[in-house]
Write a structure and sequence with these properties.
Length: 174
């Protein structure tokens, strides 16, 4: 005859195994999906914050580009007059105040009239935008819009990583 103690031990072991199995099933079928849903929602919220922040930054940069582009002195510089314009307006302090890492003035033919790398960032090369020939890359998407006379902004992949970029036409200021 079997003693009652081993029977109780076997019964308790089976009970613990069944309860453990039920707990694991509850975690897999109830708790884990809720955590996954919560993680997905938090990721979506974070992504919306990033989109809003980048959108706001692009909007701000586009306004800055339009303000700068509609400046009579810049128009004169682009036409070959007023070479002092750059020395007075595209200084490291002005770039920092405008929170601008790089600036280019580009002619309608795609050639670079001015690059901030000349005076602000010595050696700042972005192969994703500017070719080694001193012009926008031939396959650069915005090159086709140079004579469209409207502002544009967006994200561009460069050799230094992703860059926010805004452009505006140079107008005569009137």
């Amino acid at each position: 005859p079997m003693n009652i103690r081993p029977k109780v031990m076997i019964l308790l072991t089976l009970l613990v195994l069944v309860l453990s199995g039920v707990a694991i099933c509850i975690q897999e079928w109830v708790v884990l999906p809720k955590f996954t849903q919560l993680e997905r929602r938090n990721a979506q919220i974070a992504m919306n914050r990033v989109r809003n922040s980048v959108g706001h930054d692009l909007e701000t940069m586009e306004v800055q580009a339009q303000d700068t582009g509609n400046w009579g002195e810049l128009y004169d510089y682009a036409r070959g007059n007023n070479p002092q314009f750059l020395e007075r307006n595209f200084t490291p302090a002005a770039m920092q105040k405008g929170n601008v890492d790089a600036a280019w003035l580009v002619g309608l033919d795609g050639h670079i009239l001015f690059s901030s790398a000349e005076i602000v960032h010595k050696g700042f090369v972005l192969d994703g935008i500017v070719s080694h020939g001193g012009a926008l890359r031939e396959d650069f998407p915005w090159r086709a819009n140079l004579d469209a006379m409207h502002p544009d902004s967006g994200l561009v992949m460069t050799s230094g990583g992703l860059m926010l970029l805004a452009s505006a036409p140079i107008l005569n200021g009137t």
